[in-house]
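User: hey, got a sec? need Ribosomal RNA large subunit methyltransferase H folded
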Amino acid sequence: MHASSTGSNACGDRRARRPGTRPTPRATRIIAVGRLKAGPEAALYAHYAARLRPPPEVTEIPEARGSAAEVRRREGTALLAALPADGVAVALDLGGEAPDSEAFAAMLTRWEEAGRTPCFLIGGAEGLDPSVLARADRRIALGPMTWPHFLVRGMLAEQLYRAQAIRQNHPYHRAWRP
Ligand SMILES: C[S@@+](CC[C@H](N)C(=O)[O-])C[C@H]1O[C@@H](n2cnc3c(N)ncnc32)[C@H](O)[C@@H]1O
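Assistant: Yep! Here you go:
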């Protein structure tokens, strides 16, 4: 009688979560071109990443050499190779949609509930290869201006922290606007 309320699923897994409870948050993946060295950008990223539960898993792709197109293609191949099978590929891209923070938090909730790991792809100085943009499930812009890729890592971490605050109803995010 209580099978559904105790969380049994079709496979009889009694560890499955109960309806109305939150799934255990998965570690977000950040797959980014370039090695972030000690400095203000690394400090910014660390400041917000340390507040994320669980903290993101970062995979750094070495910067490629060659013409701009070759660099994009080589880095793009490496970025895509690092994507896990269950990942939602989210390209950080100037031409993408620009959700507000609440909509971004709602996206993360949906992916978590679907058991999919959000994987954020950040390009290098030459940007993301068209193959990455074509593969991406979502393309998200942090506004229409171009930001340095190491700063984008910190900005993304801040938005992930803000999304966590929104989802937990934490006062860090003040939704009210005049
Ligand atoms: C220096 S930018 C590359 C600029 C390149 N000309 C382009 O148009 O993508 C390096 C990376 O940072 C990310 N990025 C920079 N500005 C962004 C923005 N406003 N929104 C989302 N991602 C951005 C993208 O992943 C980009 O590939």
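Quick note: The first helix runs from residue 3 to 6. Let me know if you need anything else on Ribosomal RNA large subunit methyltransferase H.
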